[in-house]
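dumping this here before i forget
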Amino acid sequence: MIRVLLVDDQPLLRSAFRALLDLEDDIEVVAEAADGEEGVALARQHLPDIALIDIQMPVVDGIEATRRIAADPALAGVHVVILTNYGLDAYVFDALRAGAAGFLVKDILPEDFLHAVRVAARGDALLAPSITRKLIDRYVTRPPAIANGTGVRLDELTNREREAVTLVAQGMSNDQIADRMVITPMTAKTHINRAMTKLHARDRAQLVVLAYESGLVAPRGL
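structure:
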């Protein structure tokens, strides 16, 4: 059962999302919150698999709520998915850097929304290749976007781990990475997980950000 926490200051939107999720046999909404501070408290209380968090909220916004969840070892199993009205904007990038697993636009189709919840619950990043390219184009390549000095220790990665991280940063799935590296999908996943551990990346979305921040992957003609 996928346990979901809804955090949004709009009751009507929370109700709509809850009604959609409650129809699914494998998904359960465990709690709702109207601001980020309450959302973090409920995350600690219920330990959901997914926290769907709006960016702009009173008291504590979605970015700070994401940062607090990501920084709490007790909430390591909580995957934060950011909800936004605006698609890919600066707030979304800040949220990804804070530890979000990805983002969803609020006018997403119901079937795509449900698929995204299940993808995030598996621990996969909600960053399609097209979204990754836009992310890089708009924010990573713009000074002073993310300066040097991130503290990332690339020398701890093996050559194969570096290669896997590079392909993750290009938006490839485990199966695609396995094909490119001529290995099994399980081995590809192992390389990625080890790289995440060494780089202290919470999930694949953060691994993408770290790959570009550190200079392991250089943006090019998008």
